[in-house]
Amino acid sequence: MTVFSRDVAARHRRRLIGLVLPAVLLVPMAACSSSDAPDGTKAAPIAAPSAAATAVGEGTPAVENATDLKRKPVAAAGEGEAPSELVTKDLVAGDGKVASASSTVTIHYAGTIWKTGKQFDASWDRSTPETFPLQNTVTGFGQGIAGMKEGGRRLIVIPPDLGYGPMGGQPAAGIEADDTLVFIVDLLAVGSGDAAGGGSGGAAGSTSGQL
Q: Residue 23: what pLDDT?
């Protein structure tokens, strides 16, 4: 392969990564400059949850549309000091395959900042679920989904050391290095043969092999 063709292939691969994996979930790289990292995630403030928002447990924000899987969930800002450890809470219990931290998954999600309740990303706003391998995401995201069953909805609170930590956040998305992240995830599918306890394999139609 010529130098030119290798360069073209490398650029093509970077474009695919940006398309397949939301920038806000990418594992941070210390040597990666802002021009090297995939971009495109936009910070978008959201309306405060209504009085009908459901309190889902001590140490977790209230969530509007918490159990309605046909509607986008909306998390309020957290109250008090953010938890120092990963927190998960099943809002809807699934009944399908169980995901592991290394699964390739298809999900709908909404992500907000604990201290403000401001949304930084949501697949719901793009009307299309996302499919990607959890091993390519920040540590707390994969760990938070591990053990979740298809058909479920889970609230995940990720402390900074399991998110972007001291290496930095995602400034373009409004995420600072010390921000605690809140995700509400609907697990739509676990890759074929990729459930917890199963063998390796990607979801049908997945582009995980290009990452």
A: 58
